[in-house]
Amino acid sequence: MIDTAKRKVRRGPLRAQGGRSKARTMGEPSDCSAAQVRGASRMLDAQKEGGRLALIRAGERLFARDGINAVSLRQIAIEAGNGNTYAVGYHFESRLGLVQAIFEQRVMEMEPRRRQMLAEAEAAGLLQDARTLVDMIMLPHLDLVDEDGRHPHANFVNQYLTQHRPMGVLHAVDRPNTNSQSLKRIHRLLRRRIHYVPEAIRERRIHVCTQMFYNLLVEHDNATVRIDEEVWQAQIRDTLDVMAVALCAPCAYPNSQPIDLDDDVDEPLFVANRPT
Q1: Same domain membership, residue 210 and residue 111
Q2: Among 123, 134, 146, 184, which residue's CB has the most CB atoms within a 10 Å radius?
Q3: Does the global pTM surpass 0.85?
Q4: pLDDT tens across 148-175, in order?
Q5: Most confidently modeled of 161-170, 227-236, 254-263?
Q6: Is 136 helix (H, G, I), strand (E, B) or coil?
Q7: Reduced to 3 states, what is the DSSP secondary structure of residue 76?
Q8: Cα within 13 Å of Cα(56), Cβ side
Q9: Domain annotation covers residue 132
Q10: Are residues 53 and 118 in the same domain?
């Protein structure tokens, strides 16, 4: 029988084999160093950003396929592989917030190429050439493809221009502090090029002509029979030619309000439809 009276109760910190205490003394470095904390924080931020980008991609894909107003925010979260069905609200607050985030992301992705194209055009003295300006606006969209080689952003923008822009929903480039300086400058240069066209007609031309290019991409994506690459490139060039000619066509209504030709003045990407 065990004599419980002789048992000694061990007090204080538990000691490892060999008699060394596991308790840290004052001033001894923590097992979780500051560097480890920063690393864990960066990893968490990366996970959050990755989840945010996945929602942007899923939202764009579903909006393009089914319509901006026809898709629930829950569907977008599921499509993005997010277990939290309220993830869109957490990251973007609303459907409108997600729409604007899609624009901000895509404009940011196209910004480096546009910046390079601007520099090359300036060096070549082509900043007043309409076809060059059209190229800088539209050609970067060819790089925005999904894993199937399709252009969901083109269909998404088409829906926005016809259904939501007239209601006053802004494009990211309309808002300050967005990474869209090159696109803003290109549009200022284009307005300067067609300064003789009244504002409402000028903005309508830009609206219709950009849709022409987006429609080309959507039709190409939806074609049941793929066309030859040479033919496809010819269609792209022809569409850009038509856009440049249409934008610069003479106007029967003279512009009585000249625009500010200052290249440093910010202007919105599009002006909401107004009566001419």
Answers
A1: yes
A2: 134
A3: no
A4: 899 999 999 999 988 888 888 888 777 7
A5: 227-236
A6: helix
A7: helix
A8: 19
A9: yes
A10: no
